[in-house]
Write a structure and sequence with these properties.
Elements (H helix, E strand, L loop, with lengths): L1 H59 L1 E8 L4 E9 L4 H12 L7 E4 L9 H4 L6 H8 L6 E5 H5 L5 E8 L15 E5 L7 H21 L16 E9 L1
Parallel strand pairs: 3-5
Antiparallel strand pairs: 1-2, 1-5, 2-7, 3-6, 4-6
Length: 239
Amino acid sequence: MNTSMFFFGEILTKIIPLVSLMLSLFMAYIAYKVYQSYSQRQFLNKQIEVVTNLLEVLNTYHFELNFYKFQGKSRTAEINSVNIFEIFHVNSFLRKNQSEYENNPVYLLATNNQVLEVKKFIDNPFTPKKIADCLINFYSTSYQSVDHAELGNSVISYAVVIESSVHQPRTIGWNVKEEHRFIHGDAIGLKTWSSFLSCTEKLRKEFEVWFSKNGIEDLNIRTDFKQSNWTPNKKSEAL
């Protein structure tokens, strides 16, 4: 009996430290998972804050789109005061008569170095990478500057000229009859009107995918472009 108790006590002596170690490891694992979950939640909350801020910034931009036929020196259509998410839907109104613009370049007024000032979001470590990649499509690192005369004498027959502003629509505008210098940046989205449309729609979809992935379904991204903002060419305006 004494021998049995001795062996039982010896076994307990060996098991108890082992069980204690296992419990300690288990509690440490639980604490790590809780911390990890908390850290991920904090990181996600910061991402949501940054992405929401980006959406608000993008929605403050008003775009004026001017469609030019340089050989005839006329403006064939004008779109006033649309946001970047509505631009893709502009094409449905223009496709019938303005499809010639799709493979021609997009220019900015020389007063605008960038079509969108989004560098701080591209560089922000909390901006989701796929959204940042979409923003890079609008960011130019070099520019080519041309004026009316140079475009009129070039091989380019059609072009889209964009002015973007964070001010109210009434403050956007320029006299098409005045001489202006244009900028053609090296951003992917400025290569052609078609690529610009594609990049704007890709950005919109990436926002929706990211928010949906993180449990936010009711996202109010306006794309209901108002046809009343479209002015087709009834009387071409001379350059």
